[in-house]
Amino acid sequence: MNVHKDSVLDAPAPQAAESAAAANGEAATAIGLPRAACGRSGPHPALCAELSAYVRETFLPLRPDHPLAQDDDLIETGVLDSLAFIELVAQIGRRYRIEVADTDVTGENFGSIAAIARYVDDRRPR
Q: Of 68, 22, 10, nearest to 46 (Cα)?
């Protein structure tokens, strides 16, 4: 298992105000539309980029050209195995200071970069 001390996710989480992207995502959810993955109407684009960088650095160091879209299933595409999945969940909890309940450890919440970004964006302290 690859555990990097100086990983992208080891730095303190930014405490910036919510971006317009997050606000747009909340508004969409409030009126019953599905939230977008990452980008202008989803979670913070910087959060998605940070998570992508962490996954690439930690789990794909020998495959830097491996295609990784933000909606790709991290297990089905071979990016994560079961042990790496647990490492990722633990690191997300530490990095963003959120308690990840056992019942939250699902593909819906942690299956892709976009899913993780939505999960973190919904639960991290503001």
A: 22
Count of CB atoms situated within 10 Å of the CB of 63: 12
Distance CA(120)–CA(106), nearest Å, equals 13
CATH topology of domain 43-126: 1.10.1200
Q: What is the pLDDT of residues 32-67, one digit of tens each?
A: 334 455 765 566 888 999 999 999 999 999 998 888
Sign of CA pseudo-dihedral 23, 27, 28, 30: positive
pLDDT for 9 equals: 54
Residue matched to tokens 């933000």: 70
How many other CB atoms are found less than 10 A from the CB of residue 12? 7
Q: Is 30 exposed, middle or buried (0-12, 13-18, 19+ CB in 10 A)?
A: exposed
